[in-house]
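Chain particulars:
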Amino acid sequence: MKDNYFAGVGAIVIKDQKVLLVRHTYGAAKGKLLNPGGYMNHGELPTDAVKREVLEETGITVNPAGMLCIRCSEKDWYMVFVADYVSGEVTSDGDENSEVLFMDCNELLQREDATDTVKILVRLALERTCLALLRSLFQPIRPITICTINRHNTVGGQLRHKDTNTRSGHSEQICQFAGFAHSVVGQVPKCYVADHQPH
C-alpha cells in the first residue's frame, strides 16, 4: 500500500553491461523507458523500498550497493541507488509498466523512447563504477600512487598502463570495463588515487 507521496526511490541495475528498464504506462513518462522505482511506504527504509519496488515492478531481486544521487524539491525527494542483480527473470507487473527488459547501455543512450533522466543516471552509474574499479587496482605499497585514465591511453577497448603495482587478477577486468565505459560515456573518467582517497 502506498501511503507516502513525498519520498521516492529509484534503482539503476546493471548486469553484463545491460541496464534494467521498465516501460511506463502512465503519467508524463507514459510509453517511455526508465529505471524502476516508486514511493516509500510509511516507516520503510530507502534500501528496503528499493528491493520491494524493483521486485514488484520487474520480478528481479536486487541488493542495493549504495546511493547514486538524490534530488530534493518542495514537491518530493527522490533517492537513486545502484543495486546489484541477485536473481530472477524479467516480468512486467502488468500495471505500472507494460514491458521489462535488460538493454545494452550503449543502445539506451541512443533511444528516443528513453527518458533523459535514466540516460543521465546510467552515465553517472558507469562513471562511479569505473572509478571504484580503478581504485581496486592499487595496493598501499607506495605513499602516493597517481593513475590518470582517459581516452588517449585506451587502445581497442583495453587500458594501456605501465604501473605494475596491481592486484593479481583484477587488472584485465578493470581494463575491459574502462574500455566499455569509454564507449558509453565518451571518455573514461580521470581518476587520481592518493593513499586510496579520491581527489
Observations:
- Confidence is low (pLDDT under 50) at residues 141-171, 187-199.
